[in-house]
Amino acid sequence: DADVTQTPRNRITKTGKRIMLECSQTKGHDRMYWYRQDPGLGLRLIYYSFDVKDINKGEISDGYSVSRQAQAKFSLSLESAIPNQTALYFCATSDWQLNQPQHFGDGTRLSIL
Amino acid sequence: AQKVTQAQTEISVVEKEDVTLDCVYETRDTTYYLFWYKQPPSGELVFLIRRNSFDEQNEISGRYSWNFQKSTSSFNFTITASQVVDSAVYFCALKDTGFQKLVFGTGTRLLVSP
What we know:
The complex is a heterodimer. By secondary structure, chain A is mainly β. Chain A has no helices and eleven strands. In chain A, a hairpin with an 8-residue loop joins strand 9 and strand 10 (103-104). Helices cover 0% and strands 54% of the residues of chain B. Chain B has strands at 3-5, 10-14, 19-21, 24-26, 32-39, 46-52, 59-61, 64-69, 74-79, 88-96, 103-104, 108-113. In chain B, the strands form three sheets. In chain B, strands 2, 5, 6, 10, 11 and 12 form a six-stranded mixed β-sheet that branches. Chain B has a four-stranded antiparallel β-sheet with strand order 3-9-8-7, with no helix packed on it. The chains are: A mainly beta, B mainly beta. Chains A and B meet through strand 5, strand 9 and strand 10 of A and strand 5, strand 6 and strand 10 of B.
């Protein structure tokens, strides 16, 4: 089983719908992150959480919200989806030590029509 | 502010050629960490290497090598004798003690043709 699991892997939905992307991890890491990837823009940080009681906005948080339900679970919601939120979304985890790499899920490909 | 620049958007080579992917970074911290990730066509992100700011030793792993130069704020990645399986998007990323989160470059797409 994957250490970082994202569900769903693919989703097509319509403008205005509420969508939740889920992430769970078995690595025991406290830190979790949500990124979106757009062609030519790399990965940009949406939200991050350094522990269960800690939630922080990243560089592109507008239109998104998150919930850290447990150490192992971190969900991303689009309250009212719009077409320019069509992207590849990644969840990641890391240890508290800065020299440790982030470990990524396989991504969720989201298309908003 | 932290920044990572990968000026090469796309590189095309023929199998067995050597190729270097450039990465230039900016940070005000004296302690920081640099990473390379590979994203194959299947889409997942694969961690390749980490380098900390106080270790300027170059590293070689099989056909892969990394050249870290603090004087030019660069952390370049070379693939020797490229193979079709090396075709992917490669990301350079920076984490420093101030921001404590990964900042990614925009990626370089490498196409290796047979």
